[in-house]
Amino acid sequence: QQPVQSPQAVILREGEDAVINCSSSKALYSVHWYRQKHGEAPVFLMILLKGGEQKGHEKISASFNEKKQQSSLYLTASQLSYSGTYFCGTEYAGGTSYGKLTFGQGTILTVHP
Amino acid sequence: AAGVIQSPRHLIKEKRETATLKCYPIPRHDTVYWYQQGPGQDPQFLISFYEKMQSDKGSIPDRFSAQQFSDYHSELNMSSLELGDSALYFCASTWGGSAYEQYFGPGTRLTVT
Question: Nearest 10 degrees: CA dihedral of A90, A95, A100, A106?
Fold first, then answer.
């Protein structure tokens, strides 16, 4: 069962902020965030691990609420280059998966001048 | 910095033909994942390898097989191609099998006619 992302689409003006949410019905070990532009490969943004460890780009911030199995990606002072589809990929806890990611349906972010 | 290499970038095949997709991970990465992405869809996990052994399997048809070689490159073999196999196929690599960011290659666009 895939995680649920919200909102499905966001339209911003340059300089505005946005929050994208990712929610799972299953216990998570890690949450990965990617941005994908049309026809291109997903680009790694952030990984959040159970227990609080985070790794990612300096200008991107995110949170992981282990009790609610939810993650949020915070985009501040948006730039035109932020436009694209944002995916969360989840790795479920308790299994023997080796990094297998289940992706949400994506959030389309459009930034206008 | 070196990135994941995939070949070919584009492939056109007819129904019932076979195809082989290749993936060369980032140097020193020992883990490879294969994802399939249809138009407007999120990436779907197919199969993964850690240290040359299959580590996980997703929604991969029996017509598909894959392996990871001693130099850590991986090949996805697809037989009896169907129209529905037309998609972008991404390979991603990381190290340690889990809990690390996955770096995606540029993808192979497969078109089955």
Answer: -20
B38-80 tens-digit pLDDT: 999 999 999 999 999 998 899 899 999 999 999 999 999 999 9
> Which residues share a beta bridge with A54?
A48
Closest to A98 (Cβ–Cβ): which among B42, B55, B106? B55
Of B88, B102, B103, the CB nearest to A101: B102
d(CA B54, nearest CA chain A) in Å: 10
Dist CA A62 CA A55 (whole Å): 10
Q: In this structure, are residues A85 and A106 in contact, taking their beta carbons and an 8 Å threshold?
A: yes
pLDDT of residue B99: 67
In Å, how far is A105's CA from the nearest CA of chain B? Answer: 5
Tell me how far CA of residue B65 lies from CA of A41, A74, B68, in angstroms.
22, 39, 11
